[in-house]
Amino acid sequence: MAYKNGMDYFEKTAITRRRDWEKHEGALAALSVVLRLDAAPERIEAYDNSSFQGMDAVSAMIVFKGGRPSPKDYRRFRVKTVEGQDDFATMREVIQRRFARYKADTEGSFAELPDLILIDGGRQQLNAALEIAAQMGVQVPMIGLAKRMEEIYVPDEDKPIMLDRSSPALHLLQNVRDEAHRFAITYHRALRSKTALLSVLDEIEGIGAKRKRALLTAFPSPADIQKATVDVLLAVDGMTRPAAQAVFDFFHKTK
């Protein structure tokens, strides 16, 4: 019985390890073949943009190493030069800033070039990123992944690559793309929440710029500040009891 249990454990462990290899290292190896890369892309960066009707536009850079997320290398960008909703201009700005940091930084996530860049989008988004790379003299393999049909766009190819939906390489790209989307959306929602809170605080008498900054640091959203008691508000840097009471009364005036 002990022998059988030991063999069962060994077989289950072997199956788990094989599946893990197929999902990560195996998928990277398959991806290198599909994209005709010189080697499996150990470091993959993905970029996704997020905005609401062109307002508070942001972009996110996420990193996968060895086929696995590396959150410590994630970075966020608040778009500075683009007015309105222009996904292509946003992508150009973000890629330019990323490569500029590569040339300036000697350590940190920006100091290392990836083995592959994944752009969330189709041909036009990819071309926007390629345009900046060419202007800055940076050579990095880039692809675009369009969500509607999961087409993989590569430079200098007229038609996109269509992989079988069961392909480990496609699953890896989808995971990378979806993580970039999640990170960008999370950042954008947090930014919009802070913008909304700032607008609300403008209406409260006695809450100037310094106190607004302190409240924004302490409370990420209007819902959070609404839950705070007067004593909790009073503990925020720079708040007096009258100011804390004014904030509390404002958020509870309809109750």
Automatic annotation (TrEMBL):
Organism: bioreactor metagenome
Organism ancestry: unclassified sequences, metagenomes, ecological metagenomes
GO biological process: DNA damage response
Gene Ontology terms for molecular function: excinuclease ABC activity
UvrC family homology region profile domain residues: 1-132
Coiled coil: none
PANTHER family from the UniProt entry: UVRABC SYSTEM PROTEIN C (PTHR30562:SF1), UVRC/OXIDOREDUCTASE (PTHR30562)
Alphabetical list of PROSITE patterns matching this protein: UVRC
GO CC, one annotated term: excinuclease repair complex
Protein name: UvrABC system protein C
